[in-house]
Amino acid sequence: MSTRPPRDGFFRDVNRHFVQAARHSTVDDDVLNQVRACNAVYRMRFPVRQDDGRIQVVEAYRAEHSHHRLPTKGGIRYDANVTQDEVMALAALMTYKCALVDVPFGGAKGGVRVDPRSASPGFLERVTRRYTHELLRKRFIGPDVDVPAPDVGTGEREMGWIADTFRNLDGDSLNGLACVTGKPVSMHGIPGRTEATGQGVAMALEQCLGAAEDAAAVGLTPGVAGKRVVVHGLGKVGANAARALAERGAVIVGVSVSDGGLYAPDGLDVDAALAHRRESGSILGLAGAHDLPSPAAALEQDCDILVPAALEHEISEENVGRIRAPVIAEGANGPIDAKADAILRDAGKLVVPDIYANAGGVIVSYFEWVKNLSHISFERMTRRYQQLSNQSLVGILERLSGESGPAEALARLTRPPDEIDFVRTALENTLAIAYEQIREARLARALPDLRTAAYVLAIERVAEAYAEAGIFP
Question: Domain 219-348: which topology?
Fold first, then answer.
C-alpha cells in the first residue's frame, strides 16, 4: 500500500497564494470570491470485485473548480490516500494554470483511492471503467463538459480504458475520443503528451534563466547549460524533466525515488539509474554515485536548480532552511507549502511556480483535444507542402553557391515536420509567451515574485471570462 500520509490543508495553501496575489489585482472582492470557490465536488463510493472474488468499496472524487470556460480539464490521480481536499486544491491549480497559459478550459481534477502499485491490472481496469460510468452518470465527463487526463498513478492505459468506456456508454461516435486526453497514439492520442509536463519544466527554466539580469539576481549565468540539477521524484514528470535538461546541457547531480536517493557531484545518467533500479530492485548502489539517507535528502543537496517533482508539500517549514539551490522549479503541483514559499522568497531564491512550470501537460492535452475534435492530425495538411518548400529553398541555395552539401545534411534540411515537431514547437512557443507576460506583469506592477505575478494574471483572466460570459448580470 502507499505510505504517503494524507495531506489535508493543500486547498488552504492554494487559497493563501490566491489571497496574496488578489491584493495586487484589479478584480472586485465579490468576483474574487467566485473565482476562488470550488464550484462542484462529486464524491462517490462504488463496489468493485477483486481478483479473488471479494468486493472492495472504492472511494473516488471529481472536483470542478471553475466553469468560466468549458469543458473543465484536469488529471485523475490514483493513490490510496488521495483526499477531497487534495483534489479540490489540484482542480484550483488547474483553473489558474489554464488561464495563465491561455488554453480555453476551466479547472478540474479527479482522484481514486486505490494503490496502483499493489493492485492488479484487471482490478485497475474494473475500477477505471466503473469510475468512468459514475462520472458519466452525473455528467462529470464529456468532450464539452469535463475532460480528464493522466496524473500520478495513471497513464495512457487508464486513459484508453476511459475513452473506450465513454464511447460504449455515451454513444457519441463522432467526438467521443475527445472525452479524455493522454490516450495512446493508437487511440488518437498525440505524440509527445507523455513527456510534455517534464519537457515543459525544462522549457520554463530556459525562459526564466534566459535573461542575464534574471539569472544574475540568483548568482547564475544565463541559460540551463552547465547548471547542476537535482530532481526529486523520477516519475513521468521528473524523469522527462531530467532528460530534457540534460539534452540542454545541464548536469544532473542528484535524483530520488520512493526507495532512496543518489548524489553524484560530477553528474549521473538518469536512464542508467532507472535501469539499475529495475535490475536490482533499488536505486541505491549505482556505481559512481553516493547513496542518500532518504529520498527527501535529495532536496537538500548542493545544486544550482532543484526540481521537486514528486508530490505536494515536500518542502515545508521544517526543511526549507536546508534548501541550498538558488532556483526551485515546481515540477509537481504544490511541492512547497505556503510558509516555506515565503521563507524562500525572503531568502532571495527564484521559485518557478507550478501553475507555469508544469503547464506543459495541459498545453499538449489541449492540442490532443483539438486534434480529436477536428479529426485530423496537425501535420497532414502541411507536411508535403513543407517538404517541397524546403527542397526548393535548398535548391536555390545550391544554385547560388554552386555547391551541393553532404547528403545527410540535405536530408535533415529537407525533412518535413512530423506531428511531434508541431507539438514541441507549439509547446515551447506557448510557454515563452506566458513567461513574457508573467515577467512583464512582475516588473510593471512591482510584484514580489513570479508566483504572485502568475496568480495575478490568472485571476484577472478568469474574472474577465466570467464577465464575458455574463455570469455577473
Answer: Rossmann fold (3.40.50)
Output phi, psi for 289, to 5 deg.
-130, 150
Region of poorest pLDDT, from 148-152, 167-171, 236-240: 167-171
Helix axes 193-208, 236-247, angle to 10 degrees: 50
SS3 57: strand
% of the chain exceeding 90 in pLDDT: 81
Is 87:61 a contact under the CB 8 Å cutoff? yes
* pLDDT beyond 80 at 96: yes
Dist. CA 85–CA 288, nearest whole Å: 42
Q: How far is CA 204 from CA 224, 263, 427, in A?
A: 10, 24, 10
| All residues at 6 or more sequence positions from 365 whose CB lies less than 8 Å from its CB, including other chains | 73, 147, 149, 181, 182, 193, 196
Residue 320 and residue 347 in contact, taking contact as beta carbons nearer than 8 Å: no
- Check pLDDT > 50 for residue 45: yes
Q: Look at strands 305-308 and 106-112 and give their pairing.
A: unpaired
Q: Crossing angle for the helix pair 29-36 and 10-22, nearest 10 degrees? A: 150
DSSP 8-state class, residue 468: H
Nearby residues of 3 by Cβ (< 8 Å), 6 or more positions away: 258
d(CA 239, CA 38): 32
DSSP secondary structure string, 340-408?
A: HHHHHHHTT-EEE-HHHHTTHHHHHHHHHHHHHHHTS-TTTTTHHHHHHHHHHHHHHHHHHHT----HH
Would you kindly state where each structural domain of the chain is located, as residue ranges? Answer: 10-14+39-191, 219-348
The structure's pTM equals: 0.90
Pick the CATH number of 10-14+39-191 from 3.40.50.10860, 3.40.718.10, 3.30.450.20, 3.40.50.720: 3.40.50.10860
CB contact at 8 A, 190 and 368: yes
Catalytic residues: 109
